[in-house]
Amino acid sequence: MVTREKIETTYIDYVLTEGSQPKSVYVFVKKLKMTESDFYKFFASFDALEESIWKDFGSVVIDEIKAQEVWASYSAREKALSFFYAFFEMLRGHRSYADYSLKNAPRRLITPRVFQGLRDLFLNFSDEIINEGLESGELSDRKYFAKRYKDGLWAQFVFLLHFWVRDDSPDFEKSDEAIEKGVNLTFDLFQRSPIDNLLEYGKFLAQNSQMKEFLNFSGF
Question: Is residue 25 domain-shared with residue 72, that is, in the same domain?
Answer without folding.
Answer: no
